[in-house]
Amino acid sequence: MPINDPFEWLAGFDPGYEQARRQLARVVWQADTRALALKYRELMAAVILGCRAYPTMETHLRRALAAGATLRELVEGFEVAAILGGFPAIHYALPFFSRLHEEQGDAILGDTPAPEVKSVAKGPAVSRGMSEWAWLDRIDPVYEKAHQELTRHVWTPAAPVLPVKIRELVASVVLAYQAFPTLDGHLRRAMREGASVREAVEAMQAAALPGGFPLIHFALPFLNKISDEIEAGAFR
C-alpha cells in the first residue's frame, strides 16, 4: 500500500483538518510563485526526512529531479546535511540515490563541468574559531585535522554543483530541526553568499512540513533579527 494512503483515511475521518493540511502543502509546494526554486524546497524536505530515516524521502527526491535538480546536487545537499545531522542521514539516502541512478541513467547526474564559483565568505571552515573546536584541536589534533579537511570540502568548494548559499540553507534547516544555536552563523553565511531572507524563510517552511513547526519557530527569531539588520544597513 502506498505510504500516503493513510491520509485518505484521515480525509474521511477529519476532513476539515485534512483540507487545511493540504492547503498548507499547496502553498509550500507552489512551482513558480515562490522565491526559492522548487527543486531546492524539495531538497530541504528530503534532507529532514533523511535525518528522520523516513521513506517518503524518495518522493521528494523524485520531485526534486522532476523540478530540474541533478542527482549530483541532491548528493551534495546530503553531504552537507550529514555534517550537521549525522552520517546515518546520508547512509539512509544512498540506496535511494543508487536506485534512482540505476533507473534513470547517467543523464540525471548533471556532470556537465560546473562554472568556477568563488565563495564570497573568506577564511577556513565554519567551525574554526569556536572555542569548543579549538579545545578539541588541542586534545586530539589528528582527529580535528581530519574533521577540518571534511568540513572544508563541504563548505568551501572551488566549483560546487550545489550553490554555496543552498548548502548553507540545507545546513540551516538541519540545525533548526535540532534547535541548535549555530543556525545563526549558517543563515548569515547564506545571506553573504546571495540568499535572500525570503529564500531562507521558504527553506524553513518546506523543512517544517516533515520536521514539525518547532523547526520554523526556532528559526524565526534568527531570521527576524537578520532581516532587521539588512533593512537597517547593519547586516554583518
Overview of the structural elements:
- The chain is mainly α and 236 residues long.
- Helices cover 69% and strands 0% of the residues.
- The protein is globular, with a radius of gyration of 18 Å.
Task: Please summarize the sheet with the most strands.
Answer: none
- The proportion of residues forming helix, as a percent range, comes to 55-70%
Shape: globular
Order of helices and strands: HHHHHHHHHHHH
Topology:
Layout: H1 5-13, H2 15-28, H3 38-51, H4 57-66, H5 71-85, H6 87-104, H7 131-139, H8 141-155, H9 164-177, H10 183-192, H11 197-211, H12 213-232
Helix pairs in contact: 1-2, 3-4, 3-5, 3-9, 3-11, 5-6, 5-9, 7-8, 9-10, 9-11, 10-12, 11-12
Main attributes of the structure:
236 residues; mainly alpha; 12 helices; globular
Briefly say what this structure is.
The chain is mainly α and 236 residues long.
